[in-house]
Specification:
Distance between the termini: 45 Å
Low-confidence stretches: none
Strand content: under 5%
Number of helices: 8
Radius of gyration: 19 Å
Oligomer: single chain
Helix content: over 70%
Length: 117
């Protein structure tokens, strides 16, 4: 599975070095307008619209990876994680696919009726 950096570089037609530089600047706490205006030499002159797309995609992909880890851990705790299910979750590229795979294993809310039974 390609890294987040590689995925973003392919999607936005940028070099891996450009993406790595922007990710590093964002992780340091720099804002997109600051990077667009004052760090053009570090990013290779990426325009602000592309920087915003890169930042949004970076946030989404990081959240996706975190959710995959949560889902895998939750299913593992139930003792129902198979190699096939792990592979499907790892291959998922959108959040909805991860949620769809997790749905059968999600804990149901305890209602008064279920408690009574």
């Amino acid at each position: 599975m390609p890294s987040i950096q590689t995925t973003i570089a392919q999607e936005l037609n940028l070099t891996a070095a450009q993406v790595a530089a922007v990710i590093d600047l964002v992780d340091q706490g720099n804002t997109i307008p600051f990077i667009a205006r004052y760090r053009k030499e570090a990013t290779g002159g990426i325009d602000d619209a592309t920087l915003r797309d890169l930042d949004e995609r970076l946030t989404y992909l990081r959240n996706l990876e975190a959710r995959k880890d949560e889902v895998l851990r939750a299913i593992e705790e139930q003792g129902k994680l198979t190699a096939d299910l792990r592979a499907k979750i790892d291959e998922a590229t959108v959040m909805q696919r991860v949620e769809d795979l997790y749905k059968p294993y999600r804990k149901k809310r305890a209602t008064r009726a279920s408690k009574a039974r």
